[in-house]
Amino acid sequence: MIEIQQLADDKRWYRTLHLDYFDKGRIHKSRKTKQFMVISRTNRSVLGTIKWWIGLKCYCFFPLNLTVYDYAYLQEIAQFCELRTQEEKAKISKKVKKTRDLRRRQKRIEKLAIKRLTNEKTSGIIDLESKKLVLEQQNRVVEGKGYEPSPLEKELGSITVF
């Protein structure tokens, strides 16, 4: 196991025994992953870049033309790529879990609203227009802030929470 250190004075630099890695950040605004420049510590020459490869779903090394590597360099590069890939996949799994939980919550709200609508429908109180109003109210629930009233409700000052 090769130790990868992040430099204290500049958080964009990482260092291993033979190589330095410079975090260039996100190259384009549309990209969500970072790009790293690989630099030799012996002669300070750029050896290539490490960036996310969507086809393999991991960070990969893209060497410059006419560069030669020994096994120590390749081990360090492989370990750096593996570590960055694990970090990126951990971020992705958190995002996936959050969106999955949000979808489950929305489904529960919809089921509860449908249940209430069917109970009211059997009693003869509800019609199609009321059902649309209830569904619109569900769509106005703001994450972490609770119920957000419609402009009409704000104007009238009546807020019905179900």
The helix tally amounts to: 3
- How does the overall form come out from the CA principal axes? elongated
Return the string of H and E elements: EEEEEEHHEEH
Strand order of the largest sheet: 1-2-3-4-5-6
Strand count: 8
- The tally of domains stands at 2
Q: Averaged pLDDT, please?
A: 79
Give the amount of beta strand, in percent. Answer: 15-25%
Helix content: 40-55%
Distance between the termini: 57 Å
- Strand pairing plus helix content: what structural class? alpha+beta
Largest sheet: 6 strands, antiparallel
Report on the structure:
There is one protein chain. This protein has 162 residues and is an alpha+beta fold. The chain folds into 2 domains: 5-93, no CATH class; 99-156, no CATH class. It is 43% helix and 22% strand. The chain has 3 helices and 8 strands; from the N terminus they run E-E-E-E-E-E-H-H-E-E-H. It has helices spanning 71-122, 128-139, 151-156; strands spanning 5-6, 13-15, 19-25, 35-40, 46-53, 58-63, 141-142, 146-147. It has a 6-stranded antiparallel β-sheet, with helices on one face. The chain has a two-stranded antiparallel sheet with strand order 7-8. Strand 1 (5-6) and strand 2 form a beta hairpin. The protein is elongated and about 75 Å long. The chain starts with a strand and ends in a 6-residue tail after the last helix. The relative contact order is 0.08. The mean pLDDT is 79.
